[in-house]
Amino acid sequence: MIPIKKSFNMKPLVLLFSICFIFRLIETFIIRTDQTIIQENFIHKILGILILAFGLKYYSFSWNSIGFKRKSLFHGFLLGMILGLITFSISYFIEIIILKINNTNIWLEFYSSGFSITGSTVKNTSLFLITLPIVFNLINSLMEEGIFRGLFLKLCLKKYSFAVSNLIQSAFFGLWHIVMTIRSYLDGDMSLNAALFMGIGYIMLSFIVGIKLGLLVKYTGALWTGFFFHTFNNSIINLLHVITPIQTDSLQIVRVMFAQFLSLFIVWIYGVFKNKSSKFSFTSKEIQNID
After folding, report:
1. Which stretches of 80-196 are assigned E, i.e. beta strand?
2. Using H for helix, E for strand and C for coil, what is the string for 72-89?
């Protein structure tokens, strides 16, 4: 066990991130679990949770001390689900309106896209195959919220302000999401220019999402609101599809981006009102002293 001092540097974060990132690369490029009936690269996320547990033990932190507070679970569930329902209801509505303006027939379908050896889309509607992505998204949220908004944020706060610490964890979170774009380019599914454009765009979007989820930690005092919003966000994108006679989810990127910026705006408004009514429940000093 080692004490955390003001002299703390970035090396532990870079090391932990690099180990997790290597596992992510191995599964994405070699194992390719998402291209099997499992439909999800989940192995590196389970390994990431184990790495998180090791990091907590190494620094003498508890799960509670990084934000997984048992007493905040239900409140976080409600806030996260409400935020997800509001933002995505509006986002789906706007997407449908845009398509309707172009005189396009539209309907919604609820299914999980499955793996096919022929490359065609398989619509899985069984309860098990619909539940499976939700379970994997819960694992994903546990790993990503625990590492980025939990361990990384707490470590950074030992030296930096919340604003700087939130920027640092968000930068790592943005880089974390570049892998699939690289694979698409190497597999020949995307040109170099398209890969550069999509890669930079995805890093920036993930960075903004990281900022928002970090703010939720500050405003709520726990990881649960971000955890459940993160899970809802990934699950609804995977399961609820906007269908037209010729395309599926043709404006998905518009829907997703609008939902992220709308939710960021709502979180910011929530923080403004919370700051006026009372002190934030999770200040930098409190994060350092929670046990």
Report:
1. 107-110, 112-114, 122-124
2. HHHHHHHHHHHHHHHHHH
CA distance 65 to 45: 21
- What whole-number distance in Å separates Cα of residue 96 and Cα of residue 91? 9
Q: What is the pTM of this model?
A: 0.90
**Residues forming beta bridges with residue 110, ordered by sequence position:** 240
Domain ranges, ordered by start, for the chain: 11-289
Helix/strand/coil for 221:
coil
The secondary structure element, H or E, covering residue 233 is helix 224-239
Cβ partners under 8 Å of residue 211, min gap 6: 166, 167, 170, 264
Taking only the tens place, the pLDDT of each residue in 120-142 is 466 888 888 899 999 999 999 99
Output b/e per residue, 110-125; b: 16+ Cβ within 10 A. Answer: ebbbeeeeeeeeeebe
Give the tens place of pLDDT for each residue, 155-199.
999 999 999 999 999 999 999 999 999 999 999 999 999 999 999
